[in-house]
Every structure is written in C-alpha cells, then in structure tokens.
Amino acid sequence: MKQDFNDFHARLAAHDDRAINPSGNAPLRELIDPRRRGLLKGSLGLAGLAFLGGGLSACKAVAQRKSLLGFEAIPPQLDPAFDSVQVAPGYSARVFFSWGDPVLADAPAWKADASDDWQAQLMQAGDNHDGMHFFPFPDAPDDHGLLVINHEYVNPPLHPHGMNLVDGKRPLAEVRKEQAAHGVSVIEVRKDVQGRWQRVLPSRYNRRISTLTPMALAGPLAGHALMKTVTDPSGREVLGTLNNCSSGFTPWGTYLACEENWHNYFVNHDPDDLTARASHNRYGIAGSGLSKNYGWETADPRFDATPDPRQPHGGHVHEPHRFGWVVEIDPFDPASTPVKRTAFGRYCRECSVLSLGEDGRMAFYSGDDTKGEYVYKFVPAGRYVPGADQSNRRLLDSGTLYVARFDADGSGEWLALEHGRNGLTAENGFPGQAEVLLNARVAADRAGATPMDRPEWVAVHPHSREVYVTLTNNDERGGRQPLDKANPRPHNLHGQIVRWREEGGDPTATRFQWDIFLLAGEPQGVRDAAGRPLAANLIGTIEGDRFSSPDGLAFDGEGRLWIETDYGDDEPVMQAMGTNQLLCADPVTREVRRFLVGPRGCEITGITWSPDYRAMWINVQHPELSFPASDGKTRPRSSTLLITKDDGGVIGT
User: Fold this and answer.
1) pTM score, two decimals?
2) What are the boundaries of the signal sequence (predicted)?
C-alpha cells in the first residue's frame, strides 16, 4: 500500500534548520565503538522519517523553510587553461597529501622525474586518490584521527618516460611499481598548536596496502575450489587488492575498500573457455592481445587467466575470482591482515555504505559501476552489538545479498540472490551459493533486477535513513538498454540521482518507495518517479548550477547532500559545464549550489569530514596543466585537499 507523503513533508520542511526525526528515538552514538563515536554525530539515521514528496502543502512549507545551504554559490570554471581549485567565498582549500608523499617514516623523498623504484613506491602515497574515510581517536575526535585513502589506479606519468612495452612485454620493475601504487594509504593526522591539520610522521599507524599485500579470504568462498590457484592451493590467501574506488566503514571502526574495475587487469586467451566461463565473460575480461589496463600479465603470470591444464587448479584461471570483493581493513592495527569478505558478492563494486538500525540490524549498499548494471545491498545475518569486537568482525561473513528492482509505480523490491530462490538453481547454472556470489551479475540478471545508468556512490541520510544513489550516465540507454521510469532518458550523457525509503525505515526491509531526486544536465532538471517536472518552487536549481555526471555522494551530519562529478571536461557537450566540481544539495527543497571547481582534466572524488564538520577532505584525481602538488612546486599529481571555513565554522553553513 502506497503512503501519501505530502502532509509529513509539509511539517518537515517547516522546520528552519534540518530534517527532524519524529520518532523520538534516541541517537545511536551511545551504541557505536568509541573509535567511531565522534564521527557519527548525527551521521546514522533513525527510523520513521517519511519520504520527501511533493504537493501543495509541501510547496508552501518549502517556501517558509530556511535553506541548509549557507554558502554563496560559485560559477562554473570555463577557462580551458584553469589549473587550480576555486572554492566558495569564505572558504580555503590547500593540497594536503599527494601521490609520492611519504607514508612510512623511512620513505625516500619523491623524485620530481618520477624515477622512484617500486620499493620506494611501497612506502609512499599511491596514485589516483579516491574513496576515503576519517577515523577519530576517542580522546580528541575533532583534532586527531586516521585518514584512510584509496588509490584506484595509475597513470602513465608514474614512470619517467611513460609505460613501456619491450618485445611485447612490460618491464617487471615498471609493473611492480604500478602494483605498489595501487591500494590504500593509512595516515595519522592531527591539528598542530596553531589549529592547522598536519600529517603525523613518523607514526606507528601509518601504512601502505597494495597489490603486493597478502590478504585473507573469508566467508562462503574461502577455501572453495573456485578460489584455488597454482600459487594458492588453499584458496584462502590473495596477494593484493585492485582498483579501489569508493569505500565504506563499519560501526566497529574498520574501513571497507571496494574493488571496482578489477577485470581490466586480466586476460584469457582461450576463446572457447572465455565464452563458456561466465565468471570471466560477464565481467568483461579481455580475450585477446593485452589486458585492457597495463599488460601486467606479460610480466606477472597470475594476471594471465588462460586455463593451463598442465598446472594444479588450471594455473591462474581462478585468479580473477579473487577480486571484486569488499576488503575490510583495521586502520588502528597496522599489523592486521586485510580480509576479503566474499558474502558481499562479486561485481565491479563502487562502494559499501552502511545503514544501521537501532536494534543493530545493518545493510550495506553498493552500486555496480557499469552501464546497465545493478544496485545491491548486503544484509548480515547477525546484529551489531557495541563493544563485542570479535563477534562483530564475523558479521560480514554470512547474510543475504539483494539486488534492486525499481517498479514503474514508484515502488521497489529487493530480490534475494540466494541459492534456490528467484531462479537461482542448479538447472539455471547455479549449483550452490558460492556460484551465486561469484557470479552476482548473472544471478541478478536471472532474478530480474532493473539495469541502471551506471550506479555509483550511495549515501544514507543521517536522520531519515533515506538512501540516494548516483547514476552517472549511460549513452546506451534507449538502445541496448530500454528506457524505464528510473532511467527515463535515451542516450543519457548527464545522469541522475535516485532515492528510496525502505519500508518502515528498516534497512533490512525487502520493499521500498523511490523517486528521482534530480536529473542532471537539465536547466531545472528535477522530475518525479513518473518523469513529470516538479513545481518550480520545489526545485531551486538555477541555470548556472547545472552539472553533469554525478559520481561521488555523501551526507554531512546536518543532512546536506554533497555531490561530486566526473565527466570529460574537454568534450564539446560538457564545455558549458566547466571543469569537474563539488556541489551541495538540500534534500527537502532540492536546491543545488556549486561549492568548488577543480583544475582542468581532473575528477573530483572522495569525501570525508572531521567529526565536528569543520574540516573536509576531498580528492582531485589526475589533474592536468600545472596544478601544484603538496609541496607547491612539482608537477601535477593526484592529491587530497583539505577544505576549511575561514571563520573556523562548519562546512556548508
């Protein structure tokens, strides 16, 4: 039965400051691990807040409501030679942490000609900073913490003369450096006596995790025959992690790195095997020539997934099975082994975002960032219990993986990807749950999920538990993938943001209500679930704040929705949008303001805050021209920026 949201929306919008939960339930801060408590001020939702609908009463209330957006919007940056960062008036941004900066105390200084070897790179910041999270220390949460940062992939300038191919093979030293530049950095940060955030070096917490770091496999596929290789006959230990894009965290204080486009690192030269093996072909593993990214297989045999019957377990044919997972990392224990949690399912995962119920039940939401792929959630079988560290760690190894179906009437259903349900039987190619999880995309196909326009980051509203997902773009929509209500535009170059409310505010519910929060790229591009333009006074998006290709997405503690973009800013259709940017939206009024613009050629990504929301970190990937690195003088490098308000106030006010 559908709910009429209009009256509640009117009451909600009449409040001056932010969405107020009507349930009267206590906040969850007291339930969270102390290492998380400071950051979770208002950042995990409470049940009972209704979905933000339209209607006349809501329109009147919106007109009376004070905007959450307290900063002055800036214009797009259209200068083709722009090589800096511009932020809203009253704010400052400085480069904080760049590729090549020291992480470990004995790291050598980065060489401006990029001639560092792979052993040096293992001690320095990796390339292409992406998803990240701030973990506070409980004794000074607003002033001291660990910043954990993904390094998604590498660019040719990693080497002095670019990437080389000699007699059809990549030099092993170059490949090792590229592998070392992937992964994760953990760095300790704190305020100095002047109140400025600084990196702490040396620090016993600082750590580099890479494609060369041993990791454990856990969950349903640990030790399974489909995970065994000639170099790991146990099927329980993986060397490294790849292409970590966005991320997540747990309430017990661990980081979740998410392996996205891992398939681009592998090749299977056997055309018959590639065609028959869904775990390869459904994920786009290359079948001829070099692997799509770097040709690592010419120097490191484990990335050649061609079956070899002369070797145990077919050689490295199962190596791709060991990527595409959630990787749990304990930032407070630098000696701990990262763990790949196979219960989450395997696909090109963008993120793993937590929604925590008051009773300890959890859901972790993810997008599969490929045209026409799906939105998922994983619901652990057990419940989170504050302080029960050991039992909490085991919660991620059993549960139910779901995939979303968005129905035309604005309702939706989570379809269980569970052996024996929704057509996932041996007769249909799924002998057991291991095959369901390993081939989650194929299972979602069979279950009847809705193909989406490149689902990327997910964000959960801090008070209502409403869930938002960015659908970045899809130029194949209307062709290979038909139109539907959640993906309503053909040749979709600009993307949209879809949101939903779980039934009863329960993160583990299997039914939900959804609508389109906004259609990017349109002058006043906000429409409802039926594709109808919403009333102008519910939009607030002015012509000058148009943007394209929403990608990164996160809520701050007050309920502001921060949106990061990723498009080719040199493409003619995008030139009117300017360079990539960071915007902020009010979920009630749908007003959007541009907060920051980046240098030409970059992607704006990664976002996190200090617990008091007076410091924000974002990432600038692959900047061009002369964008300064953290030393202020060397050539452009992917970097983390620190943003503060000049008067010391809360970001966004």
Assistant:
1) 0.90
2) none
